Structures are given as structure tokens and as C-alpha cells.
Amino acid sequence: MAELIRWFDAEEGEQPAVQPVPGLGLKIPVWLLGSSLYSAQLAAQLGLPFAFASHFAPDLLFQALHLYREKFQPSARLAKPYAMVCVNVVAADSEREARILFTSMQQQFINLRRGKPGPLPAPVENMDNLWSPSEQYGVQQALSMSIVGDGDKVRNGLAALMRETQADEIMVNGQIYDPQARLRSFALAMDAARTL
């Protein structure tokens, strides 16, 4: 990380071993995106903004944010901690529709755990015949911070997430099979965020 930052921060005339093109000397913002306590500590030590991947690894979110803020050391890039939380949001006009759309992401996680990655699967009405109890438990744990529902549910979920994490920013992930449904989900999430 330190070497990467030196490449982007190189002054004119310096010749680092690797020359980012474009980027040399542009002081491009560098974030550390992580899903572990190590990444939180490294971001704090280097004085970088930190984004936590709670969209697939929610278990350490609160501990990582606490550690990042507690251990943060100001740097030339950042004077105080700045944290972003990434969360899955699947929004639709009804709770039922959102739950069905969410099954694509659930299936994708099953496929990854089975060692069979591939394109995002189409949604299904019911997941019961697609996963074993242990797969269901694992997927539900990994996706436990997901906000799935109609506009009101998404608004309440985002408000709770902001209140509980005190995040400076929220990054929204939305693995939805139908591109139009995905755009609608992002629009509903944005409408919800504007009211916060």
C-alpha cells in the first residue's frame, strides 16, 4: 500500500520503479476496502479512508470500524477517520418482489460455496429446494446485513445502518438479474437515501 501511494504521489522528475499511467503524481485518492480487522488496522495506520465489505462479510463490521477509528493516525492524505460501509440493497415496489429478486444473490452465494461460479442466476419463487440447511445458514450469515424490501423498508434499513455505524458514506451493492429491476432498485434506494 505504501509503495502504491508513493507511485501516485511521486513528484515530477521522480522515477518510481512502476509508473502508473495515468496517475503518476496525481495524488489519486486511495481507499482501503476490506473485510477483516487487519484491513481496518492497516487503513488506520496509513491514515487512509476505509470501506468495509459488509455486503458479504458482515460479522466483523462493528469491530473493524471501532478498531479503525480508535487506531487512526492522521496522514498527509487524511486528517481524521473516514469510513464507508458497503451493503446489499434489493428494493422493489413490494416486499414480495424484492424477496424474489434477492434469490439471485442467494443462489450466486450457494454457487460460489459449491465451487461453481458463473453468471448471476435468474430469481426463483422459492429457495427451499435449492439449498441444504447448512448452505442456507451460511448464505444467510454472509448476507445478514442486506436490506431487502420496498421503499419504506429500505429507508428504515439505511437509517438504522447509518445510526449504528456512524458511517460517513454508504456504498450500495445490488446483484439483481433483470437490468430494469436493478435500475429500479437503485432508484428506490436513492429516493430512500435522500430522505435521511
Write up what this structure looks like.
- The protein is of the alpha/beta class and 196 residues long.
- Among the domains are: 1-30, no CATH class; 87-164 and 173-194, no CATH class.
- 45% of the residues lie in helices and 12% in strands.
- The chain has seven helices and five strands, in the order αβαβαβααβαβα.
- It has helices at residues 2-9, 37-46, 61-71, 95-113, 133-142, 151-165, 179-194, and strands at 32-34, 50-52, 83-91, 147-149, 169-173.
- Strands 1, 2, 3, 4 and 5 form a five-stranded parallel beta sheet that branches.
- α4 packs across α5.
- The chain is elongated.
- The chain starts with a helix and ends with a helix.
- The mean pLDDT is 93.
Q: Give helix and strand order, one letter per element, not per position.
A: HEHEHEHHEHEH
| Tally of separate helices | 7
Q: How much helicity do the residues have? A: 40-55%
Residue stretches low in confidence (pLDDT < 50, at least 5 long) are: none
Distance between the termini: 34 Å
Strand fraction equals 5-15%
User: In total, how many beta strands?
Assistant: 5
Taking all residues together, what is the mean pLDDT?
93
What spatial form do the alpha-carbon principal axes imply? elongated
Any idea what the radius of gyration is?
A: 19 Å
**Tell me about the biggest sheet?**
5 strands, parallel
Structural class comes to: alpha/beta
